[in-house]
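Message: Just now I want nothing more than another pair of eyes on a protein record. I am handing you a single protein, as its sequence and its fold in token form. As I understand it, each token names a local backbone shape. Take your time, and here it is.
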Amino acid sequence: MISFADPYWLYLGGPIALIATCFLFWHEKRKRRRLEKFASTKLIDGLTANHSNKKAFWRQVVLGVAIFLLFVTLAGPQAGTTTRQKATKGIDIIIALDISRSMLARDVSPNRLERVKREIENQLDKMDGDRMGLIVFAGNAFLHCPLTSDHQAFLRTLDKMEAGTIKAEGTDMAKAIDLANRSFESDDKDRFLVLISDGDDVERGGVKASESNDVRIFTVGIGSEEGVRIPLDPVDKPPRNFITNDRGEDVLAKLDDSWLREIARKSEGEYEAFGPMGEGLQATLEKLQEIGEEKRTALLNEEIPIQRFQFILPLAIALLIVELLLGNRRRLQALASVIAIVGAWSMMGCSEENMLGEAEKAYDSEEYEKAAEIYESEIATKEENEEPVDPRLLINAGLAHFEAGNLSVAESFLKKAQNETLDEPTLQSTIYNALGNLYYSKAKAGLDDLDLSSAQQAWEQARNAYEDAVAIDGNQKAKQNLKDLEEQLKARVLPKITTLHGVVWRDFDGDGRPKGKEPRLPAIIYWDKNADEEHNASNEPFVRTNKRGLYQIQWISKSYPTSIRLGCLLTEDNASKSIPLLPVFVFSEENPVPSNVRLATLEKAGRKEISFPYRRLPVLEGYLWNDTNENGERDDNETGLEGVNLFLDKNGDNEPTDDEFSFQTSSDGSFSQAIPPGPYQLRVQLKSPQSKITFPKGEDPSHSGLGNFEQTIKGLRFGVYDPNQQENQNEDQNEDSDESQSQEENQEQEVVERSNNALYKSLLEASESKSKPLPIKVEHDPNGTEGGAPRP
């Protein structure tokens, strides 16, 4: 049986062909009458001796039939059908949420409504590909978010919903169900409604509505059967004010699941209790997600009419050619016109076919760049002419770019082809397999560069693409590629990955083992790639520990044994405490500047602990006063000296040098200063030759000792006679040694940075780092060490 895709062209073509034929007959007769006005009959017969009326008649008939056949072609003649497999899309889900005031009950935390909103948000990522809508109801129902694939817009709408905003009190489930039924598209065969309520259907119409609507309803009952009071206080405040009835009695919100169960049963849905942690809603959405996933991967057989215009169009063109041959013009002119028409018709696709042939030839000759250029040119031409682009052109362009090594461009073309072939499962399968190959290549490139993070990401993308190709039509190539991928993962990646883990903490007792009372320190762990013991944020990857100072990263190496240099920088929340903490795992008297980098040797792949203990520097505390009477004792009228330079005399020459650590006294003459661990000899640098040290007494007026980590050395006093010091200083600045000693004891190991010396600055440099995160990238050690970079 013959049918037409667009029969309106027939209704239009018939009259037009008839009018055109009649016009030609009239025009022929008109020409004859006009000749008769200017010449006799004998003369006309002589002038028209070569004119054939019979040919003219048939020419007009043939032209009219040809015009009609052109309209038949436009009408799209169809005869017979063929079966085509069509990939389906996701499902449509509407959430109907009860926002009556009973949803303020707090038998789940923080309350029923807020708990539901959180669980929906937690599960929404799993509904990728499905359209979501939102209806809220109480005594009435309103559609707040029509069906949409934009899940973020759905969440924004959901977040704004508050209990009690619908003025009509009560719970009318029937209105919500009817509104949901009207909100689905008329041709939508997969209608799912998730109705969430405490089940108190005041109007009792929900069951009847579920029977009369073609919607599968999954119901979720929230609340307790015993009932709880309904607070009116904000959710972040303790409940003090409760809803009461006309008699002043507290209203209890109870779960009545009988109505919800009946609604689900009548609509062939399912009922779930919400549960204390939302597990019922989670189970419901997971079931719908499974249905949607099955539908997305299912193939439907679709009966498609077979187009037959290719038989009508050549006939119409042939008649037009016959019409020209029947004309009364000279034969050469007629033949020229025929050749022009036939040539134009036959050359319509010649240029395109030649170009595509050149592209295929270039591809077969492994001239992939040339092939890609030709395919792109054809695509651009069609887009400029606003013609539809054959998805196969996009696929071929993507494959050519892939073979040429242009992976990003190839991915762009394949993704575009993917969007254009949603109803062509065979092409979809081909595209998924090609994308799998592309991501597979990215993964192998990442492994070759020891870029573990990007390699694992590409590996996962390749696996998903191959699995999708297999799910669509059992693509055997994709199935084999997936198998090869898994084997490569087991052979090339897993055996070469080392997991590095550890903790950063303050090691009070210095035994190198973290204990429960020793504080953990948040920090940055980085790969010291260029071995300069400094973190270069532009090219040295890093990860952050958690608040408990714990970290874990993955490292890949082509071969073992190998080594890695890991550095550690305390973050600002540690440095801001002004406690000078330094790493102690590389420290000795010969090397008085501790290193913040550990060189770890990895004998084989597996797990390796690398922890970073920190300890506080030793602190020197004391004061320096102006001994005006030169008696070596501080009197009540003697004040502290501000800005006097003290230094650690390493070489014993009594003079400060550039490599010796120095600092100055504060405004009241006191000092509290962290110093490098080890032996120290603290001296005063006098400001003028007239000045002299009156305390300590003796030939060597200095303080010496051994400074250990976590130690505070107190009571270091210096008396200095300085005749240039002003004697009218403010008496409020005077402190005796007992008051100074008491102040020092209250400092509790906290120190103030007062150093102008480069040595101390370098010691605290790690604590002051303000590096910004960069994406983790694994690179090859230029010094011959093979390894990778941290991955969170």
In short: The two ends are 66 Å apart (CA to CA). The first helix runs from residue 8 to 38. Residues 87 and 422 are 7 Å apart (CA to CA).
